[in-house]
Specification:
Helices cover about 60% and strands about 15% of the residues. The chain is built from six helices and four strands, in the order βαββαβαααα. It has helices spanning about 10-25, 45-55, 65-85, 90-100, 105-115, 120-130, and strands at about 1-5, 30, 35-40, 60. It has a four-stranded antiparallel sheet, with helices on both faces. A hairpin with a 2-residue loop joins β2 (about 30) and β3. α3 packs across α4. It is globular. It starts with a strand and ends with a helix.
Length: about 130
Amino acid sequence: MNLYIKNMVCNRCISAVKFVLDELKLQYTAVELCEVTLKTEPSAKQIDTLKERLQQLGFELLDDAKKKLIEKIKTLIIEQVHYKEGDERYNLSNILSSKLHKDYSYLSHVFSEVEGITIEKYLINQKIEI
């Protein structure tokens, strides 16, 4: 089972989420930016406790499909800007479309609708943070 978590942007975030999962005895196979893969489906009580603990750390467990998509877009952008080595030229629209299996115009529209800024503006903001 996959869970999507908002505001995971670095390795410390991954460590913090792992700590919470371990604390709640939720077994996982992978914890990556924005996404956790659990070995088994948690109970409703475990989900509620997880939501509460994550919120205390500044994260949000996502249950809305559009919000999940937005976090995936943000994660891919963060990975491209902050974690790719070298000065490779890349076409962000192609990367997003191929990784998310959606048309870029749809991704762009949903991102702007939910976030209030364009993907390109978000990309620029990430580059400024370097």
